[in-house]
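Note to self: the last two entries modelled the partners one at a time, which told us nothing about the interface. This time every component goes in together.
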Amino acid sequence: MENMFWLGILGAIISLLFAFLQSRKVMKFSEGTPKMQKIAAAIRQGANAYLRRQYKTVIKFYIIMVIILAVLALTGLVSKFVPFAFVTGGFYSGLAGYIGMKIATSANARTANAASESLNKGLTVAFSSGSVMGFTVVGLGLFDISVWFTVLKYLFHCGANEIATTMVMFGMGASAMALFARVGGGIFTKAADVGADLVGKVEAGIPEDDPRNPAVIADNVGDNVGDVAGMGADLYESYVGAILASFAISAAAGYGWAGMLLPLLLAVVGVICSVIGTFFIRTGEKADQKALLKTLRTGTYIAAILAAVAAAPLTYFIMNNMGIYVAILAGLVAGCAIGYFTEYYTSDTYKPTQELADASSTGPATVVIGGISLGMRSTMAPILIVGIAVLVSFFAAGGAGGFTKGLYGIGISAVGMLSTLGITLACDAYGPVADNAGGIAEMAGLGEEVRERTDALDSLGNTTAATGKGFAIGSAALTALALLVSYVDIAAGKMAAAGKVMDITLVNPPVLIGLFVGAMLVFLFSSFAMSSVQRAAQSIVIEVRRQFKEIKGLMEGTADPDYAACVDLCTRGALKEMVVPALSAVIVPIITGLILGANGVIGLLCGVTVTGFAMAVFMSNSGGAWDNAKKYIESGTHGGKGSDCHKAAVIGDTIGDPFKDTAGPSLNILIKLVSTVSIVFAGLIIAFSIM
Amino acid sequence: MENMFWLGILGAIISLLFAFLQSRKVMKFSEGTPKMQKIAAAIRQGANAYLRRQYKTVIKFYIIMVIILAVLALTGLVSKFVPFAFVTGGFYSGLAGYIGMKIATSANARTANAASESLNKGLTVAFSSGSVMGFTVVGLGLFDISVWFTVLKYLFHCGANEIATTMVMFGMGASAMALFARVGGGIFTKAADVGADLVGKVEAGIPEDDPRNPAVIADNVGDNVGDVAGMGADLYESYVGAILASFAISAAAGYGWAGMLLPLLLAVVGVICSVIGTFFIRTGEKADQKALLKTLRTGTYIAAILAAVAAAPLTYFIMNNMGIYVAILAGLVAGCAIGYFTEYYTSDTYKPTQELADASSTGPATVVIGGISLGMRSTMAPILIVGIAVLVSFFAAGGAGGFTKGLYGIGISAVGMLSTLGITLACDAYGPVADNAGGIAEMAGLGEEVRERTDALDSLGNTTAATGKGFAIGSAALTALALLVSYVDIAAGKMAAAGKVMDITLVNPPVLIGLFVGAMLVFLFSSFAMSSVQRAAQSIVIEVRRQFKEIKGLMEGTADPDYAACVDLCTRGALKEMVVPALSAVIVPIITGLILGANGVIGLLCGVTVTGFAMAVFMSNSGGAWDNAKKYIESGTHGGKGSDCHKAAVIGDTIGDPFKDTAGPSLNILIKLVSTVSIVFAGLIIAFSIM
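The predicted structure of the combined assembly is written out below.
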């Protein structure tokens, strides 16, 4: 069985090849008029410049960390592979984001141009671009895991358990990069968006994406560096993290090679099913929005069903334990169910968002209160679903008989949930491309009809993004639980060796305090993320106001605004502001560990996971609902665009921006980064903690 | 030693007597002009009518619960004393709130009238009224505990341990009443406040408390039923809960009578020190606001220092263990420290609130984002302080040698924190009276100077309220931890008897899921509380708009608005809306227990406590900062009243209303009610749970 791991590399090649073919397909389309090409070039240039500067900043952090890890490796406190693995994890995570951004900035004008021919052509370009990203993320993830596996097994002749417990440490590099990308990109995009909206829409009363708005290019750059590159790095990390956590628990459960082969082959099967699923995404030339949604859903569900079917014989042959198959199914079903409820709470075709739109009739305050209340309420379904999935996975996988066997069930259910990531991420990543296409159509003056089509694509993107977020959040919770279990397993061995007592019962004060600190970290991190956006946005507001005032003829359309100034402001703001939140996620678990010991760290991990999960759902859904309540009003209810209701809803939407695109999704990464940091530094903490 | 418990009754009598004398002092002042008397009567009548209807609603819940508890008592699943204790706890909690409301509604016009003579006289009336409330709460609490103690010991001849484990169940009645009072009163007051502000201040542009606003009487009624009656019931429950939890842990630690006598006598000493403290609250005739704050602080700190000094010999003679004294000190210091940081984050004399006011220059969205960020950031200090207090108390009280002895330290530190509640609550409860006095001064047209004085008193009240909230939140966290420990102790015995295994390690799936459900309950409860306010406020907005439109001559001051209609709407809204959040706190732990067993319940309690504590601090401080940022702008910065900045700040303040006065403080009660419900139903849950 240990010789079948080359299938992982095969899966990686299939995935990357498919991504390459899709990108060729995109590039065959025309970028449209010279004006469109010029706008697209400006966006591309801004996004490129930002990402290059972001990576330059992050590299400093990586150099420092590698030095620290190298010292720890030399003193035997971490495995000698960790420094190298840390770098590759960060590199591939960053690369996934970069490739996603590259194709997205090439596809935006092409989508707009294709949409001027037909809705369906627009969909084809945007979705193909999204699938480049989806399959790149999956392919790079499988590649990184398989290569390391091969190196450890055939070059260093490590055994199954050693490979498993070593590789779980590799997640940290990917998580750290993902956090920088999500937070930095999230601050960039929302500073630009909030800034553009506050002055453009609210004060000056010009439409969204109006070329007279100096922040409009920055806003479109932001979609690419935040929603695309940030998301790519994020989901790369989720995907790799879930597989590696299963590896580690497999070792604890005594499943040997088989327990590691299953998650890897599940992922490979998922790639193939996802590729098949994409072929079902097509519509007739006269498709409306509903038909578009239907075809995307069909593709996703076909991939999921195929994966569910294929997983049965796979599990049977590898593990000969169909309880584990039930755990995989539980993960797949839970992902879809969370996606459904996310859509229920955030789409304007359901009551919650419609009622939120009603609240706008009594002004912005009630919209804000209503949106916060909606988001908080929406935490119930995902938490119950994850709870049920955990219970089902645990007991189905044999938790009543062997505790660690049950925990393996939880780990594998996370892999099940993410197995068809290729296609779910494609649906998710297509949204920002459509959003950009709309911006370009507006700026290039492509006319009402084209704008309507790109709006339809964009609005559809919001819905698919909801489903994608469901998978991201649900898998983050399950992966974090799996990482927690790995940590407990690793720490227990090290503590016993150091003569310390592991007591992780809930009445042990260090555990309780760890829980409190974990909850605190979630609040603190969210606060940092939001105040960063606020500060960066305020600087944009001031700059846009300045340009409106000082550039003569700007409002009349006879002079061009200074777009580059806003892009530059956003870049500097994001790079400056991303450091503190990202570092807090690395430093807090280490300090907590040094004071409260490993027992306290376990409390911390639980506190971060539990509170972070609820907070992430709350923030994402509040933000999503505000956005769609505004769109609902713009579609003509409550007086439509320009009414008092609309103004109130725009304020809600603006507040929701950092909720749903900066703090919320970053929390998914935070809960995993804290776990991987704790795992990597377990040796150090247990050796030097004062408790 | 067991014969010294009569001192508890003596303490109760001293406290109640002092409250009576203070109320006589208040009543000697004049209520002012006939117009003032008329307004005060309207407020009094509205508050009375609301409280009577609230109690009538709550009584139904109590009848159902008593029947359930009686059935459980007959089947032996709860102690036979529980149904009676449940009723007395609820009764005294409600009574404490009622008396507080009575004196506050008698003192408001008297404060306004006294303020027309001098600032100092205004302070005297308002503070005396606050101390009636403070000492009534403490007196009734001591009385209830001492009487039950006497009945159990001398009538039923129970031993120390039996008394301790029985009496901890008594908290549930008080907690349930407190939750109804806080939630119901909180919805009433904020529906009226939000409704009055949204239409009056924002839309019609008339000042706060303008008599032309139809919701103005309801707003003033709300201060009394929410901020006074609700807070009274709340802190009654905190006070009693902390003492009873110490009783229960004392039994587990094997401290017998001595371990119970110490918290009781600490409370008695605290009463005496608080009474002495009040005599230091006086100023010269020409005092300014700063001098007022100084005198209130002096009184509070003198009481705390005296209590700290007196606790030393007390602890020495009763327990002969000065480590426990350190735990008491840790509690007292932690309470003051949390109060300081609450003030730092919410007072406009410090940077955070001033920066929040700056954010208003870019509109309401940045004010809201900034306020949420500020509140989330402010969770750090209280959580670290509580964490340190827990560690210090645990180890000082001997946790390294005997685990339960350390836990007793945590319980007694909560009692230490609350020992001078008499005076801290007096400072807190004086605020709403001053607020009401300002309203009456405005409505009765008492002139600019008087209004300035009542504003000074009111603004001071906001600061002292911050300190009071620090104590309320900090003690809630410590008490909840003590109750958690009691629950674990009680459940361990019952589980062993039922042949079930207690496993509360953090990797046991029911424990983990319990944690998630606990976090979820906090979000869900907050959502309910806020959407209740939103719905009730929307009905007020519509009614006020209707009156402005339909009552001719209202804006010109020639016709009176229909105040009663708004009071009635608020009453109906609050009574209807308070049921779901309050019931969720009772039902969720029972259902969780029946499915996940006692292990899951312990996870739930930790999840609720940890997430609830952070959320309560966040919501209270965000709300407080928005309120004071608005006041800061009104004081003349950023363009002052009527400027765009002011309008943005008013929106922030309006959103903050349900944060700081409905959801936030209710969470303090929630975390304790969930614990006491779990304790009472432990027998039922362990007998019938499926896990």
